[in-house]
Design brief:
The protein has ten helices and six strands; from the N terminus they run H-H-H-E-H-E-H-E-H-H-H-H-H-E-E-E. The chain is α/β, with parallel strands linked by helices and 243 residues long. Helix 1 runs antiparallel to helix 2 and helix 8 crosses helix 9.
Length: 243
């Protein structure tokens, strides 16, 4: 794991300026060579197993933002997380748009048998900024249509928050995670396994600058620090315990 972390860090462009297109590509190529020559040999046995099968225990649905790296944040090895990323960590309700996200959820639950699904938002989210300022994406019709799945969170905040402008983004980010958890539960495969206690869902918000995570506690209706002392859960109580 430490070698992978060093590789990620060394491949990050400096804050001094943006790389040219050729430099950016070369950074990726250099990174692959470091991975193949330095990291892969130390984990050859793991990759040999992964070459034939995967058995992740959790699905991680998060934003496409380049600053969010689920495997790094959770210190997970390859094969441990089934990751799906999109703008705004959105989960469309079942039946409304059975596209890539819905397909990935169904496969993760029914095909891979994951035990946990985590929906993870993050600080300084560009998608949530766009929800607050839709004029900024007027020339991006696909993005605008996609983020309609977050409109429910915007309405909840507008009607209930009464928060100052500086805190609206953070509250919206949390409410969007709650909204997407609600959408997730409309998927039949998810609903069935939640009801039998075979699946557990979680809503997280990751703070990039401070390396903290707040997790949604459905029973208390609030986000609590994920500090190792408590493990907040967004899962409803199981009604049919699996035999």
């Amino acid at each position: 794991m430490s070698e992978r972390i060093r590789s990620i860090r060394s491949a990050t462009p400096t804050a001094a300026g943006k790389q040219s297109a050729d430099e950016a590509l070369q950074t990726l190529l250099d990174g692959f060579q470091r991975f193949r020559n330095d990291v892969f040999p130390e984990q050859r046995e793991l990759f040999s197993k992964l070459a034939r099968q995967q058995s992740p225990q959790a699905m991680f649905i998060t934003c496409a933002d380049s600053r969010i790296v689920p495997e790094l944040i959770t210190q997970s090895d390859p094969g441990s997380l089934f990751v799906t990323r999109n703008v705004g960590n959105v989960v469309p309700p079942y039946g409304q748009m059975n596209g890539g996200v819905s397909t990935a959820i169904e496969y993760a639950v029914m095909g891979l048998g994951v035990q946990h699904i985590i929906i993870c938002g993050h600080s300084d989210c560009g998608a949530m900024k766009a929800v607050l300022n839709p004029q900024s994406i007027e020339r991006m019709p696909t993005v605008k249509a996609w983020l309609r799945h977050a409109e429910v969170a915007k309405t909840v905040v507008a009607d209930n928050c009464g928060c100052a402008d500086h805190s609206t983004l953070g509250v919206l980010t949390e409410e969007n995670v709650v909204a997407q958890l609600d959408h997730l539960r409309t998927h039949p495969s998810v609903a069935a396994r939640l009801a039998s206690g075979q699946l557990f869902i979680h809503g997280w918000v990751y703070d990039i600058e401070n390396c903290t995570i707040k997790a949604y506690d459905a029973e208390r209706g609030e986000f609590l620090p994920l500090d190792g002392e408590t493990t907040p859960s967004a899962s409803p109580r199981a009604r049919y315990l699996a035999s």
